[in-house]
Amino acid sequence: MKPVVLLGMFMALPASICYGWSCQTHSFIAHQAGLDDPENACVPDASRYDNYNLLVQFHYHNAAPNTAVSPEYIDKYGVSEQEYVPKADPASRSIKIMVPAESGVLYWKIVDLYRKIKTTKYSSDYNYGLMTIAHLIGDLSQPLHNYPYKDEPASDGKVYHDEGLWSGKAHGAFDARFDEVLPYMGKGILSEKIVVSSEDDLKREIVKIANSSISIANAAYKENGRKMTDDEVAHQVASSVVLLRAVLNDTRRIFEN
Question: By CB neighbour count within 10 A (0-12 exposed, 13-18 middle, 19+ buried), where does 86 fall?
Answer without folding.
Answer: exposed
